[in-house]
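Continuing the batch. This is chain 6 of the set; chains 1 through 5 are on the previous pages. Same settings as before, nothing changed between runs. Recording input and output for traceability.
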Amino acid sequence: MSIALELTIRILAAGLMGAAIGYERELRGKSAGMRTHLLVALGSALLMIISQLGFEGSDKFDAARIAAAVVGGLGFLGGGIIMKNRHVSGLTTAAGLWVTGAIGLAIGSGLYEIAILSFIVIIICMEAMYFYYFRMGDRGINVVLSGRDRDVLVNSLEKIGKQPDINSIIKVADGFKVDANILIKKRDFPAEVLKRIDAISGVTLESIE
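Output for chain 6:
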C-alpha cells in the first residue's frame, strides 16, 4: 500500500467515525453534532500524521508534543460546551468530543484496531446510557402546589412521589402554597406525575420542574 493511500484511509476513517459519534449526539438534540465531531476526529488524525511524518528531517522533534497539544485543545473546547449559557451541562457531549479526538489520534497513528474497538464501545455506551438515564432509575423534581387545606397539601406529596422534602409552606390569601422536592421514577415524568396531581382533590399545580 502506498503512503498516499494509507494516509487517505486514515483521514477518511477518522472523519467517518467522528461523524457517526456526532450523529448519535445530534439525534439527542445536542449542540455539538456530526460536523463538530467529524472535524475534531479528522483534525486530530491530520495533526497526528503531521507529528509522525511532517518533521522527519528534525533530529530534536518530539512527535508526542502535537498529540499532547490536541488533548489540551479539546479540553478548552469541551469546557465551552459544558459552561454554555452559564449552566453546567453537556458533560457527555464534551467527553464524547474528547474521546473522538483520541480516536482521531489513534487512526492518525495507524492504530486501526484500537480505534475501531474504542468507536464501537463509545457508540454502545452512549446508546445504553441514554436509555438508562432517561428511562430507568429515579430523578428529583421540584413542585409548587396550592390549596385551601394545609394537611391535604402535605399529604398529597406522598401520592406524587417518594421522599418528599418540603422547602417552604406559605400562607396565601385563599389557602396555602407548598414548595417541595420529590423523588420520582424517570419514566413517570411528566405525564404520569401530572396525572397523579390532577387526581388529588383540592390541590392545584402551580409549577413543576
